[in-house]
Write a structure and sequence with these properties.
Elements: E1 20-30, E2 40-42, E3 45-54, H1 57-62, E4 68-81, E5 87-97, E6 102-112, H2 116-123, E7 129-140, H3 144-148, E8 152-169, H4 184-190, E9 195-212, E10 219-235, H5 238-243, E11 246-255, E12 259-268, E13 276-282, E14 285-286, H6 291-298, E15 300-316, E16 320-339, E17 346-348, H7 350-359, E18 376-378, H8 385-401
Parallel strand pairs: 8-9
Antiparallel strand pairs: 1-3, 2-4, 3-4, 4-5, 5-6, 6-7, 7-8, 9-10, 10-11, 11-12, 12-13, 13-15, 14-15, 15-16, 16-17, 16-18
Amino acid sequence: VKDNIPKKVDTTGFRHVYSIEMKHLRFPKITFIPEKSSGITIGNIAVTINEVKADEVIDVQNNPLDYSKEAEISCNKISINSKDGFYNYTFQNASINSLQKELRISSIRIKPFLGETAFANKARFQKDRYNVDLKGVALKNIDMKNLLDKKIFASNLTINNTSAKIYRDLRKPLSGKSKVGNYPSQMLKKADIPVNISNAVLSNVFIQYTEHEKISDSSGVITFVGSAINISNITNLKEAIEKNNVTTVSFDTKILNAIPVKGAFKFFLNSSAGNFTATGHISAFDALLLNKVSVPMALMRLNTGTINSIDFNFTGNDTIAKGDFTMKYNNLKVDVLKRDKDSKEIKKKGLTSLVANIIVKNNNPDNGNLRKETPKFERDIQKSFFNLVWKTIFTGMKKTVGLQ
């Protein structure tokens, strides 16, 4: 009978060494030189291995973590240029430790090579320009054996500080390409690397989204400040999804550093149609705060008004979002604006504003009657998940005040 058990192959050259024991082994400076065409540069690499014991060298070669109490690899800098020439990705002070089962990176930066205008011109079509800074990144309780097999299994991901700035030039045409299948959960499911992380916590999150509008020829900027984001059940494993098919993203933030918002998204991982829910509560604020966004983005200015609360509960998929929407407010009055062709200044449309304020319902509740709306918005498949959610909220606002 032939022995079908695969033989161990020794590539170390120590064929006659049948045991190994080392207390401490350190390589403080290893230089790795990638190919020039790769667009990758790697700084100083250090390797430390503690308490190695094995009966055969081949055992250490084939399963190093099984025969070492601790192994740590660190690199002070990794820089990668994207193939499309738009971005540089930089990782500072990255280290992974097998005993602590942790991966730590002091900072991750995604930096565009070009400024906003040059980026938009190079892209030719509408394309989001990202400038991202993450600090204090840690992946904890990693399954080290699976990591060697290019699988990321861990209990917790934490990021201490996040800054993300996104810019889009709406003066450029849309590309004509569908974004169906590009929701966050769908992108994770399509990833080549198996992922299973129980929970992620992002603290001190700052997000800035800027649109350069075509009609007003000016930029509207919306910010989310002091945000806390919690994500549970980050996975693309079939067996994990069978046990729990929902990824939940909950958030607590301040829009424009003044408007308190709490909410959550739920993504259904077993859905082929991108099914999700979106819920949120917005606390009271002065309606005039919205002029920072409504003037450049909608050519509308609020003169008076207080928004007492906004609540929404939507369901959606790849093509549509709809649900319940309630906005309570009082003394709401608006101006409709236009951009002067000659002076390029934004001015009030007198007659149109007068008509608008006749149409606009100034209060909700009104005479004790609370209006609740059920907005529905069909997705432009060339645009993102967040565009769909925002447009559904905006539809609910317009219906509530009587502008739709």
